[in-house]
């Protein structure tokens, strides 16, 4: 059974393709594909192929049938903006206070695109709530996004105090993943942050893009769960009419290197013949094959290399980090790289800050700062947590660290360690830490060299104005304010993640490297020095 198929995640699309392949060998296999909003005919067509013989009701054929289960929904009035908003965060806040002033009781759910916008909106709501009439009911504004602590996330489900209206400001996590009782009003900004990979630059960005009609319907539906509600769309009816029917599937906008590596490991060698529900652009496939080849996972015939390629496929991290982990033993820093791999897998959920605590949170980060950059800083955080914070959640709170995330990092590290031990790789913790005590500078250099073995394609050079430029396409990047490399000097760096905000492209998890490592540790097939130039 494949649930939530409409989300069209990479895993779902690959699973459906593999199941279709399996079904040719096992026609008796029953497959159930379920979803809240689904173009059912397209899925049936995918599995049917030439066997499609739909009956008069459009719901049954030789291969399968469509079964519709009508859920109970209260009516939701949809209201559109008269004109497009220049600042939808400001309009969202204004709409919240309009609802609070003129509509009956009921909680409000506001959809924005990310943490920065949510924190901004919460600050504006708090500022204006102070001016409410003393006899008016109060507003309790709460955030909801992935980087919050579990306690903060669970607080959105608590019943609001008497004479108080709850306002939850959320990313699209509240669109389908969670259902919050008491929501009567939805405010929809009309945007969502989606990951998109550009094969020409090799850069994956997180960019705010217009939602689809299917997402707009999902969001509006949140208002009609317990009683009739209203959905305020902060865009015009004309804009809604131009929205795509469904969100572009991940397979058409993602770095396909992890997926191709998995398919190769499953014995599916001919990627071009693999039956995708919606085929990815050829450029994405070519770029993924190039990256896997330069990492050493594929040979000249695009076959999985052994043992490196097959081991990279088995480790539950993306290929660049898998290469780093498998390179670490030869560079004598495996214990440290295991910790760094676990910390980077948290995707920015290491730190937290409440409203008005930015300076205190920044001061906490500086306690763990390593001048070489973010990866060694994350290592310092992990090692401090193991020695001081693992049995003391107060230590985490005092240092603005997400305790649950840190516990998860410990679990992820143990899992990665088991993978390597299964390969017969000796993870000698005491030896690694002893080496660090005796010469941390050398181990720090080894760690950064090791990171370069996997992340050489994410290299950039600092420019005189403090920005960075990538090697291959010269894309201009800026260190994210949360990075230790923000406003610091470095000639060359490697980075993990890219975030596009407005007209700037930011990089996160950044570390200093030496240019020569790109040719020593990085794949010589990826970079070549041109002539006698020194750049």
From TrEMBL:
The keyword Nucleotide-binding applies. One of its GO terms (molecular function) is RNA binding. Transmembrane segments: none annotated. Pfam families: HA2_C (PF21010), Helicase_C (PF00271), OB_NTP_bind (PF07717), WHD_HA2 (PF04408). Keywords: ATP-binding, Hydrolase, mRNA processing, mRNA splicing, Nucleotide-binding. SUPFAM superfamilies: P-loop containing nucleoside triphosphate hydrolases. SMART domains: HA2, HELICc. Residues 92-267 form the Helicase C-terminal domain. Residues 1-56 form the Helicase ATP-binding domain. It catalyses: ATP + H2O = ADP + phosphate + H(+). This is RNA helicase.
